[in-house]
Amino acid sequence: MTILIVFLCIALLIVLISVFKVNAFLAFLVVSFLAALTLGLPPAKIPSMIEKGMGDVLGSLAIVIIAGAMLGKLVAESGAAQKIAKVSMDAFGPKYIQWAMVLTGFLIGIPLYYGIGFVLMVPLIFSVVYRYKLPALYIGLPMLAALSVTHGFLPPHPSPAALVIQFKADMGLTLLYGLAVSIPAIVIGGPIFSRTLKSIPVSPLASFSAKDLADEDLPSGFKSFFTALLPVILLAAASFFPLILNADSKILPYILFAGHPSVVMLIVLFVATWLLGVSEGKKIKDIMTIYGDAIKDIALILLIIAGSGALKQVLTESGVSNQIADYLQHVQVEPLFLAWLIAAMIRFCVGSATVAGLTTAGIIVPLMEQTHTNPNLMVLAVGAGSLMFSHVNDAGFWMFKEYFGLSLKDTFKSWALMESIVGIVGLLGILLLHLIIA
Questions:
Q1: What pTM does this model have?
Q2: pLDDT tens-digit profile of 264-311?
């Protein structure tokens, strides 16, 4: 009976968000309180339980997500993203322009949040399309595939970062595994798949064109690339050095301190403030305004993550998570595939990759612990599933349709199929990686 209650509550969450268009944070709260009451938890303790769940997940993530948003906003506003695109395209030339777009989307996708990156990339895509007279989807889809994969797979993006915390994974290792899985997903979903779409007509709206900065106003290539890649460099180093140092090494505690995701993001933010801000002639006051705007951009994401923490806490306190895990253990399915499938189904119903990933976490954590599944790979499996089945209830679907001026049919043939391809290829890469490191 308790398992039935949980699935009805999750179904209600999906209906509230997708059918009645209720704000995802409010939907999580309503369902969390309802689930707690119907599962028989003491009513007097439910509010504090909800608050604890929200506090636990935000306490671990707030610095990472907020600092990441500030970094992404500065990368965009300073012209560093534009510089990365320009250097990449100049380096690859017209013959290999698709790979320049992939590299640009990947590098910009690491620090930038998805919505910001999408809006920023589309004008760059069409500037290349007009310059080289090439089909828009052939040029644009590789870049957007890279952007989508970084959003779904790689910390410090909100959903992967939250999953790392909930699964007690290692953010550095998750990032390294994610990079390995991302490459084939991007290549197949981007450059290879986009070659089949050259004949689809595109009518971009002029109102979506962004104003480029003049070349002389852009930061240097070193500053732009170094700032965008610094989170990856530091997180990777933090995972590598403990493997080669002795446990009693005097510098190990300092490396572990500096390699903590919150500290890494603060270090990167301070470096970016100097390299892309102060050294480029920007006043601290203006930089702080950019950072303030960044917090507004991701406030709702933080609330959704907090709401997911509340539901997870209810499932944990009621003991139903363990019951679900016990039930799922008897299902003869690889846990990584099961997590991917659950995330994909919720994504199809809700439309939000973030909501799909975080909702799946509350269901799959006990099973992961009982089966001793690698938590780093579980983060990636849920992330890959959360990218599946993008359709009319996904904001990204409509952004792609309107920015490229596509018909509904052609949006399904291009965007929706690309998202599913990267999700499936990502899963296959994760399962292969599981065989290698098991």
A1: 0.75
A2: 889 999 999 999 999 999 999 999 999 998 888 778 878 887 888 888
CA dihedral 150, 156, 160, 163 (to 10 degrees): 170
Domain containing residue 56: 2-437
Q: How many domains does the chain have?
A: 1
Q: Could you read off the pLDDT of 214-242 as tens digits, one per residue?
A: 888 899 999 988 988 888 788 778 777 87
* CB distance 327 to 2 below 8 Å: no
For 43, counting Cβ atoms within 10 Å of its Cβ (0-12 exposed, 13-18 middle, 19+ buried), the class is exposed
How far CA 424 is from CA of 12, 129, 166, 356, 427, in Å, comes to 27, 29, 23, 16, 5
Q: What does the alpha-carbon distance between residue 48 and residue 309 come to, in Å, rounded to a whole number?
A: 13
Q: CB-based burial of residue 281 (10 Å sphere; 0-12 exposed, 13-18 middle, 19+ buried)? A: exposed
Task: Judge contact between 431 and 337, C-beta under 8 A.
Answer: yes
